[in-house]
Specification:
By secondary structure, this protein is of the alpha+beta class. It is 32% helix and 32% strand.
Length: 345
């Protein structure tokens, strides 16, 4: 008889937007106890998930499941890098960027049931100034909007787009000196994002073509833009068309060094932190094992109500744009139309 695999569920009771009270029963009802011996541990303070995951990896636990949002996933994942212990994700957050990129079920019970297949693959992860990230990291407005999103009382795509449109035009672009294998280049940029995975979360795709298996990161440089560019850029995030925007420059690299004029914020998987003027980012190839969905369907083929709302809006945007220009209230009018579409979802 084969020895059972071991799994520890780390539950952050305060993360995300949903109560975790029913999850222990869901685990008991759904996990195949003929295959797994399991335990459940609750986090009690910031950083506790990372400590628990590190302990479990040292014990040789087969799988550690992060039950929470992107912050909890990052905490658990960073302790499992370069170990034999695999990460599983039960997405309970507001963005769920890594889970969405990997096409994992958003339904809690289905995410637990998926673990029974024990389908494990190896993926890349990134490091920015010694801080691991698994989806994205960035600086400039990228970090600024992460801070705004973290502070928002309301979560979800409406909040994200509202913050982009309202705050974006107030933000002053910076000059960055970027060095990679091809040499050194100077950019005046609104933001620089480095993507290991395709999206921030909430199906906002900063790097639609990114893969976590190629040993490289997608680097996105967003140049300064005016009020009429803002709605299109916001729409492109959700429509997977950001790479076609004239304000966007992209390239791929294994590592890069960025120098900016002064210290400021960066973010890693949406968590903002202050750091100095010099920033180093690199990819660790095949550095983490993750439980994946053996029945994954490419998310591009799934209906996306946010995309549909944006598409509907931009089918009529030229008429709206002409009126906006005449009246001098351009971004306010586009905001109202845009947010009205989104709030109907």
């Amino acid at each position: 008889m084969n020895e059972k695999r071991t799994i520890t569920f780390i539950i952050n009771p305060i993360s995300g937007t949903h109560s975790k009270d029913e999850i222990p029963k869901m685990i008991a009802d759904t996990l195949n106890e003929g295959l797994f011996d399991y335990q459940i541990r609750m986090t009690e303070y910031a950083g506790h998930a990372a400590e628990i995951a590190r302990e479990e990896a040292e014990k040789g636990t087969t799988i550690v499941a992060a039950v929470g949002g992107d912050g909890t996933v990052n905490e658990v994942a960073r302790s499992l890098t370069h170990t034999d212990t695999a990460l599983a994700i039960i997405p309970c957050g507001s963005g769920n960027g890594l889970a969405r990129h990997l096409c994992l079920p958003m339904d809690t019970k289905k995410a637990i049931a998926m673990i029974n297949s024990c389908n494990i693959e190896t993926f890349d992860y990134g490091v920015i100034n010694n801080l691991p990230f698994f989806c994205t990291c960035g600086m400039g407005f990228d970090a600024f909007i992460s801070l705004k999103f973290a502070e928002a009382g309301k979560r979800g795509p409406v909040t994200y787009v509202e913050n982009v449109l309202k705050e974006g035009l107030k933000y002053k672009p910076e000059t960055y000196e970027v060095s990679d294998e091809s040499g050194t280049h100077e950019y005046k940029a609104f933001l620089i994002a480095c993507a290991n995975a395709s999206q921030y979360g909430n199906n906002a795709y900063i790097a639609p073509g990114a893969t976590m298996k190629d040993g490289e990161m997608d680097v996105i440089v967003m140049e300064p833009f005016d009020v009429l560019d803002a709605p299109q850029i916001a729409a492109d995030l959700f429509m997977k068309t950001l790479g076609n925007n004239s304000k966007i420059k992209t390239f791929r690299t294994k590592k890069l060094h960025i120098h900016r004029q002064e210290p400021g914020a960066i973010h890693y998987d949406g968590d903002p932190i202050m750091t100095d003027a010099d920033i180093d980012v690199h990819i660790e190839h095949n550095g983490i094992r993750i439980v994946t969905n053996p029945e994954a369907i490419e998310d591009a083929s799934q209906p996306n109500p946010v995309l549909n709302a944006f598409s509907d809006l931009f089918n009529n945007i030229n008429n709206v744009r002409e009126d906006i220009e005449k009246r001098g209230k351009r971004i306010q009018r586009v905001n109202k139309v845009l947010l009205r579409k989104l709030t109907k979802l």
